Amino acid sequence: MQTNSYTPLTADEPTIVAQATPEGLSGVAVIRLSGTDAVEIADKIFSKPLATIEPAKAIFGYVHAPNQPEVTIDQVLLLPFKAPASFTGEDVVEIHCHGGLAIPTQVLEACQQAGATFATGGAFTRRAFINGKLDLTQAESILDAIHAEGNQLSQFATQNLRHKTVAGYLTGLREAIIAIQCELVAAMDYPEEVEEPPREALQQRLQAVVEKANSLCETTAKSQWIREGLKIAILGQPNAGKSTLFNALLAQERSIVTPLAGTTRDTVSETLVLAGIAVKLVDTAGLRETTDMVEQLGVERSLEAAQLADCLLYLTDATIVGANGLLPEDAVLLTAVRGNQAEKPLLKLLTKQDVLKDKTFTQVLQKTDGWQPLSVTSGEGLGAVLQWLESTIKSQLHQAKQSNEQGVQLCLTNRQQECLVAMAEHLEKAIETLAETAFPLDLTTIPLTDALRQLDDLLGIDTSEIVLDSVFSQFCVGK
Ligand SMILES: Nc1nc2c(ncn2[C@@H]2O[C@H](COP(=O)(O)OP(=O)(O)OP(=O)(O)O)[C@@H](O)[C@H]2O)c(=O)[nH]1
Ligand SMILES: [Mg+2]
């Protein structure tokens, strides 16, 4: 079904070719041909005639240089698809050859010599969009699914790919605006037959659309971490064991660890996947008053990382906790770290438990209510830290899903959000215009047309080439 107002591509378009799998060592590589001449081109380089092939059925054979059957390049499986039942909506031939660098390059060259044009980034998905196989939000979901580091984002992307959740929801808003536009135009064009719709009712209906768009943007902002990764900052005074914990969670020696206080001077971040979510773990410089300019800048960055983080791990060295409990510095630092975000999840850890004798440690724990013991050296308490992180991530995800409009906001990209914000602004202008009773009703149609233009850009309905270029340029060659 055609989901946009583009005319499907014609036979004049060149047949394109690219490697669909990443370059490098691999057992198998897939070379994809798409376009009217896909089968004809494949026929020139394949050992068996392809005139009577059955779609979606793999054929075993050999690829050779064009019209030189004696120059064998590789043993392959060839998988043909007949338009429109293919990813791009055109005739497609996939050549599954051996991986590595040499063989795929030779197969690509053979395809080019036989008449194919090398594809640019995103060319296949762009053709799928133009031919109505995907709407623009589904094309962007493919990009999300490819780039997703955590399986949660890829699940939302795949959900949109399958059920068109984004387009379905936004088409409802579009229809609401079009209905109002139609009523206005009818009243203007046939003043004798059609009564002017009451302005107040129109304002209310437009306001309802604005509120839906705003709430979608708000919830998208709240769940932005699913796209960007949940940020977890590790904070505390110098020498508390922050970098040691950072390295242990990553299972690699990423940060430098020494017995000297003030070893980490800058923030260091790495990504890992926890509970299906991409997590950006940030190691920070130890927090303390200092006259050293470099260290001061590091401390500023630590506090900034605390502000930007979605949750915090605060560490204190159990071996220097005083007889009366925590050091006063920690209370001050904890307040600085939390800022005005008291609801931000925080885990307080007493580190180096292994250094203290059991009895002393129990005494320390008694005086430090709400702190969890940890020794990275012995491994004690590390499992509990991971458990806390996983349950915190799950509860954040649960909250995001609860404020979810049918899964829609969880999939919105920055581009889609910008279109939605611009649409809401135009609708607000329309509401203001309606409020001015001295203005004729037809003035309202101008901002309504602008609002619809934004939604069309979002959904890829009759979208400008500039918008399409900016979306598809993010894809790699072969996709
Ligand atoms: N015994 C023991 N030593 C630890 C533990 N965790 C860290 N250490 C030691 O404590 C010292 C400081 O550790 P770091 O991880 O560098 O501390 P940090 O908080 O990153 O320090 P700065 O980067 O200076 O702020 C190192 O000598 C670590 O080996 C632990 O669980 N037990
Ligand atoms: Mg450190």
Supply the helix-strand structural class: alpha/beta
CATH class category of the largest domain: Alpha Beta
Helix-strand sequence:
EEHEEEHEHHHHHHEHEEHEHEHEHHHH
Residue stretches low in confidence (pLDDT < 50, at least 5 long) are none
Helix proportion range? 40-55%
Please give the number of β-strands. 12
Strand residue percentage: 15-25%
Separation of termini? 21 Å
What is the residue-mean pLDDT, rounded to a whole number? 88
Largest sheet: 6 strands, mixed
Bound molecules: guanosine-5'-triphosphate, magnesium ion
- Indicate the overall shape: flat
The value of Rg in angstroms is: 30 Å
Count helical runs.
Answer: 16
Q: What is the CATH homologous superfamily assignment of the largest domain?
A: P-loop containing nucleotide triphosphate hydrolases
- Counted up, domains total 3
Provide the CATH architecture of the largest domain: 3-Layer(aba) Sandwich
Instruction: Give the strand order, joined by hyphens, for the main sheet.
Output: 3-4-5-2-1-6
What name does CATH use for the topology of the largest domain? Rossmann fold
